[in-house]
Write a structure and sequence with these properties.
Blueprint lengths: L21 E6 L6 H13 L4 E6 L2 H8 L6 H14 L5 E3 L2 H5 L5 H11 L4 E6 H8 L4 H4 L4 E5 L7 H5 L4 E3 L3
Parallel strand pairs: 1-2, 1-4, 2-3, 4-5, 5-6
Length: 174
């Protein structure tokens, strides 16, 4: 027990933090524009999230998920760090788990790491393509019950599982 005692008036209740939860932008960041990053930062501020976490995927993870060619991980990560430096006053973090692992990281492993590392409630921010890919995985139905999803982009072509769990996600609007 701490040796520091404090006297407080009767009925005192500590101030509740005004910011809660974490917004995680999960993507390869190969085709993500600065406007999309700005939109995510705007949503973080508008909804009073504690922080925005940018989660870039390793090349081997992207190849397994979509077979698309991407730049090296460190180049995409450097771009994100540069964008973050331009927004020094905002609570933005670039997650380095995939850079440390240097190999394929399943989305389940990434989400378990995020769940253990960052304060709840968790909101995943994804592009429409990434959300459709994630919805095609078997583990989607388990994870969508534990977190919320914000999708960047507008389209009528959403995966049937996304349509099934329509109450757990929304379109990104500023």
């Amino acid at each position: 027990m701490s040796g520091k005692y404090a006297n407080v008036p009767f009925g005192y209740e500590p101030v509740q933090p005004s910011r809660k939860g974490t917004l995680i932008f999960y993507d390869s960041f190969e085709n993500v524009t600065n406007e999309q990053l700005e939109r995510a930062a705007t949503i973080m501020n508008a909804r009073a999230f504690k922080q925005l976490v940018l989660y870039p995927l390793h090349e081997s993870t992207v190849k397994r998920m979509s077979r698309d060619a991407v730049q090296s991980f460190y180049k995409r990560e450097d771009r994100l760090h540069e964008w973050r430096r331009d927004h020094a006053s905002a609570p933005i973090r670039v997650e380095g788990l995939e850079g440390k692992r240097k190999k394929y990281t399943p989305i389940d492993t990434a989400l378990r790491h995020i769940q253990a590392e960052y304060p709840s409630p968790l909101f995943l921010y994804m592009t429409l393509e990434m959300a459709n890919q994630w919805a095609s995985f078997d583990s989607f139905t388990d994870w969508i019950k534990e977190l919320r999803l914000i999708i960047d982009g507008q389209s009528d072509e959403v995966h049937p599982r996304l349509e099934q769990y329509r109450h757990r996600w929304e379109w990104a609007t500023e």
